Amino acid sequence: MIKTLVVVLSGLFALTLNPAAEASSDEQRSTFEAANTHYVAGDYEMALKLYVRLADDQGLRNPVLYLNLGNAYFRTDALGAAVHSYRRALLLEPQDERLRSSLAQNLEVTRARLSRRYLAGSENRQFIFEDASGMLHTITHLMEEGLLSTLFLVFWAMFCVILMLRRLRPSTGSLSVSAITVGVASLLCGLMLWGQVVTGESMPLGVVVQSDVLLHEAPHVEASGHALPEGMEVRVLEDGEAWVHVALANGREGFVPTTTLWAL
Amino acid sequence: MGPGMHRSGCLLALVLLMSWAPPATGQSGEALTAEVDRQVLGLGETLTFTITVKNASGSIELPALKKDFIQISSGKRRSNIFGERSQTWTFELQPRRMGELRLGKVTLTRRRRVVAETAPITIRVLGADELSDERPTVKLEIKRTKITLEETLLVVARVTKGRLDSGAQIGGLPPDGFQIVSGSERETGSLEEDASGRTVQVNRIALRLRPERTGTRVIGPLTLIVGGRIIAKSGTVEIEVVPPPPISAAQARRMDHYDPRGLAVRGYTEQDSYYVSEPFLIAWELLEGRFGTRGRIQIGTEPSLEGFSTHTLEGPSERRQLNLAGRRVKARVLKWKMARAFKSGDQVIDSMVLKITNPFSGETTDTVSSRPFRLLIKDLPKEGRPDAFEVSHVGRFRVEVEWPLREGDTIATQQKLAIRVVVEGSGNLEGIQAPEFEGDSDAFGIENLSDRSSDKIEITREGVSGHRVFRYRLTPRKPGVHALPRLRFSYFDPVQARYHQIDEPGPKIKVTGTPVLDSAVELGYSAADIGPILDDDSLRDVDPRHAAMRPLFWIFWLIPLGLWVMVEGSSRYRAFLARDPVGRRARQANSNARKRVKAADLALKGGLVKDFFAQVSRVLHGYLDERLNIATAGMTHDGLRMAAIDRGVTPELMEEVVAELENCDFARFAPSATMTQQMGDTMGRLKLLLGKLERSHITRGDA
């Protein structure tokens, strides 16, 4: 009885941390394979078209798909869009270590290429790949979502067990100290989780996907502005129809056309 | 100065007081005029008698008017515009009789001395039988059909009428596209005879018009309107308004045609000719005449400047003194434009038209325009022109190349190099194209990454100067010793009128590593390339929600919490029971009774009569013992009844309990094999009794 309960709970726990909502259809699967075939054959344009069909048109959210999509963008020299795809994949927190390292490496290579391009273009330009989402976002995202959720639930369970033991076996020593320690750890993890949820919803990010984008001081094409490098991450403050109000990592705010920014 | 009064037999004498202080005697501009709008009119018609005094003080003495005229109305108007003071009296008069009537002289007296007077005016009044009964006519008389924008056009409206009553008005003036030159309206009257020998009145209204813009304009038809009804209409005349013929750039600069008394606009350039793409300044200045602007100046029409690229500059607002054709003139900058021509040949700089408006009424009172002038734009000479020369490279420039490596340095293939080229100087910096590098394309790949972020271009009256920065990325492709591509840049110096070519050879460097194919360079394969694509058999759609926003997360959060709440509650409940043993026994009475009922039930099922009734008796005694806190052991039924009633059990219910206990005692000690039915009934009654006892309001005894 207890063994069955433990097995069921463990399964549910794993499902909580690594959910796979729906399996893809056969059609999606065949499209993905066709895109991979085109990519390997060097037909990056066609591969990109098929990846985009899956990711954007059909809304399939899969880190491997995003990785391949990013690679196709990279090969077609759309480096900002490649950064966007790699970041989207990483936001899904894939568990596969090979996939994670591949995404991290590709992102680094793409950013390095963009950096070289802009550094070569102008020494005065600052090319910032800092986290644009602010201090709260940075602090709350020190740990990945899955690990943090696991820690929180474990600490929480331990805290409750210690409280139960303290009630059932009052004679056991140092339970109060343990309860406080584990309770504080649980509270910290809970606050970080809350921060992740809040900042994820209230501080959406976006990636500049075009070159020669200006950060306008007002939502008008004739307003003066500063150049934004392609691939730069910005924080979206307000999303309008034609213009997006954004903030950079250094606090500068401005407006960019909606077509030049893709939300993460 | 006291008011003057003339009483020498005049029916109408007016004393008109000048309200301003007496000016100095002999002040320039002092004038007294008296005039009528018509000197021949029919009986019953009206004329307007106008007296105007300008820049003078004193008393006005009028002639006798009432003898020969009926005064219909009168009015007075003062004005003081730009220092010119005037006072005007108007009288609308209707003659009382036919024949020749005389309006006497008007005198201006100061300190009882006549300082000015006007001549008498004779008015001829015709009777109705003397006037023609032909229809009135209106006719346009214009001598010229083509004028320039700078000229004025004399338009005469000739109105003939016989017995027409007064009050006729001319409609259709000023025509569209023209404005009446201030003070140009003039009316004259005369008499003619018609075919029947009767008199026809002919009035000529002469207007001087100034065209506002070029093109074909139509003047007319003019209409004669009486009482809101058109009684005569003139024909139309087409006038072609053309720009004034352009003068040379030198004439425009010198302003040979300028009359220093009036306003003028001077549009000019410093030179008579420029090269294609060479920046130069076109200036327009307002030359203020002797009397100043006398109104608000607005730019009406700007020159189109087709064939030029222009940049407007801020000019100084203060006036400056110029020496034009030996005369000193005040000038004010209207506009500066830095221009460069796209094509060669004689180019005409159009007129700039200024509007002078009355600052009070906002009406345009006059226009003044600059003369268009010809400017020679020279083509760049073909002689000595370098190959691949850019036509826009006109000016005086210096080029500085910042090579990333020095002679003999070593670098690996695929390692990117940044080259910075600065073009500095004066001239057509905007038109500078990125300088080109020439070299072995197999050895180096070169990309132009220039933008305008570091450029600095300053446009002033003196010209265009500053620098442009061009950046390149160089990628070594082939190992070996190679010279970096050389930079070539050529430009045309308009001052020296010759071409210059700058040639900057690159240093020789050593390239190590493996050769790189073109395709690899294009695709970006290098040591820092992206990884391969991956495959995913399942290709599952991942829920993008945060883990903490999923229901299972909260289930796992609630499970430990629920367990802890249960343990805590249970523990607290046990502690609570421990603190009240009587109450605890009472609260457990029901559950204990149920356990005993179960035992009785087992005995019932086993057919154990004695045991069954003993168990039923134990159930009731135990319940009363625990619930009512009565020590039932050794107590008689009566004692039990009394004690239970003391605790709040109703006597009727207690009677039933005691009856059941007696029934059990009887059955225990006289068991029968046919007692099965009775046992079942007893079990039923027992459960009913327990229910009733549970619902009774009972007070517990002391522990």
Short description:
The complex is a heterodimer of chains A (264) and B (703). Chain A is α+β, with helices and mostly antiparallel strands. In chain A, 58% of the residues lie in helices and 12% in strands.
Write the layout of secondary structure elements.
The complex is a heterodimer of chains A (264) and B (703).
Chain A: H1 2-17, H2 26-40, H3 44-57, H4 63-75, H5 79-91, H6 97-121, H7 135-140, H8 145-168, H9 175-202, E1 205-208, E2 213-216, E3 225-228, E4 233-239, E5 243-247, E6 253-257, E7 261-263
Antiparallel strand pairs in A: 1-4, 1-7, 2-3, 4-5, 5-6
Helix pairs in contact in A: 2-3, 3-4, 4-5, 4-6, 5-6, 8-9
Chain B: E1 15-17, E2 31-36, E3 40-42, E4 47-54, E5 59-61, E6 69-81, E7 84-95, E8 99-103, E9 107-110, E10 113-117, E11 121-126, E12 137-141, E13 146-148, E14 153-161, E15 169-171, E16 178-180, E17 186-193, E18 199-211, E19 215-219, E20 223-226, E21 229-233, E22 237-242, E23 247-248, H1 249-254, E24 264-269, E25 273-275, E26 280-288, E27 296-301, E28 308-313, E29 320-324, E30 327-341, E31 345-349, E32 353-357, E33 364-369, E34 373-378, E35 395-402, E36 410-412, E37 417-427, E38 436-438, E39 444-448, E40 456-460, E41 463-476, E42 480-483, E43 486-493, E44 498-504, E45 508-512, H2 518-523, H3 551-578, H4 581-606, H5 609-628, H6 637-646, H7 651-669, H8 676-695
Parallel strand pairs in B: 3-11, 13-22, 23-34, 25-34, 36-45
Antiparallel strand pairs in B: 1-5, 2-4, 4-7, 5-9, 6-7, 8-11, 9-10, 12-14, 14-18, 15-20, 16-18, 17-18, 19-22, 20-21, 24-26, 26-30, 27-32, 28-30, 29-30, 31-34, 32-33, 35-37, 37-41, 38-43, 39-41, 40-41, 42-45, 43-44
List the keywords.
heterodimer; A: 264 residues; alpha+beta; five-stranded antiparallel β-sheet; two-stranded antiparallel sheet; globular; B: 703 residues; 8 helices; 40% strand; elongated; disordered N terminus
